[in-house]
Amino acid sequence: EAQVTQNPRYLITVTGKKLTVTCSQNMNHEYMSWYRQDPGLGLRQIYYSMNVEVTDKGDVPEGYKVSRKEKRNFPLILESPSPNQTSLYFCASSPGMISGNTIYFGEGSWLTVV
Amino acid sequence: GESVGLHLPTLSVQEGDNSIINCAYSNSASDYFIWYKQESGKGPQFIIDIRSNMDKRQGQRVTVLLNKTVKHLSLQIAATQPGDSAVYFCAENSSGTYKYIFGTGTRLKVLA
């Protein structure tokens, strides 16, 4: 089954404790991206990657890092989480981002930073 | 999963009626649009898309209308069912860019 898989789905952590949210897709997609979703706001892009070893900042990259060492994986790293990073996070992938390529989303990761 | 939708406009419809959900998009250069459905606790699911060279596209029980003059997009759901209850949001993209802009969404509630 074609899918985007994120882990963990739910996490409560403390301020400053490094964490990684993993993302894997099995569709051989070139493009992957991370978004956060907050009440009253649309999905906001954190980072994206157009292919292996190619990453770039989205609209809200502060406090986050990513890596793309393999085509299928695109982990999101919070080196020193803060409470304002409490959010619902989505990983997404697409065959390529020339206009007209649908984005497929993972099921989301609820992160709470206390 | 509910807290994401707390501040969203809500459309309540009777089961069996038609639903119309609207979206005003922001970029006049956008030429590709998608509607997503997001159920509580789940990721957004693709419903239907449309390119700017069309003004209407139909799927199974869903129709998307595009009015480029006023930068407006709508999603029509025929014979709304309880399983249609979710948050619906639009996304826009312009050719050659790697960026999508997502709307904040509308919550659809289906009344029995």
Which key terms come to mind for this protein?
heterodimer; A: 114 residues; mainly beta; seven-stranded mixed sheet; four-stranded antiparallel sheet; 11 strands; 47% strand; globular; B: 112 residues; six-stranded mixed sheet; 10 strands
Account of the 3D structure:
- The complex is a heterodimer of chains A (114) and B (112).
- Chain A has strands at residues 4-7, 10-13, 19-25, 31-37, 44-51, 54-57, 65-66, 76-78, 87-94, 104-105, 109-113.
- In chain A, the strands form two sheets. In chain A, strands 2, 4, 5, 6, 9, 10 and 11 form a seven-stranded mixed sheet that branches.
- Chain A contains no helices and eleven strands.
- The model of chain A has no long low-confidence stretch (mean pLDDT 93).
- With 114 residues, chain A is mainly β.
- Chain A starts with a strand and ends with a strand.
- In chain A, strand 4 (31-37) and strand 5 form a beta hairpin.
- Chain B has 112 residues and is mainly β.
- Chain B is 0% helix and 51% strand.
- In chain B, the strands form two sheets. In chain B, strands 1, 3, 4, 8, 9 and 10 form a six-stranded mixed sheet that branches. In chain B, strands 2-7-6-5 form a four-stranded antiparallel sheet, with no helix packed on it.
- In chain B, strand 3 (32-38) and strand 4 (45-51) form a beta hairpin.
- The model of chain B has no long low-confidence stretch (mean pLDDT 90).
- The A-B interface holds A 4, 31, 35, 37-45, 48, 50, 56, 58, 88, 90, 97-100, 102-108, 110 and B 1, 3-8, 31-32, 34, 36, 41-46, 49, 51, 89, 91, 93-105.
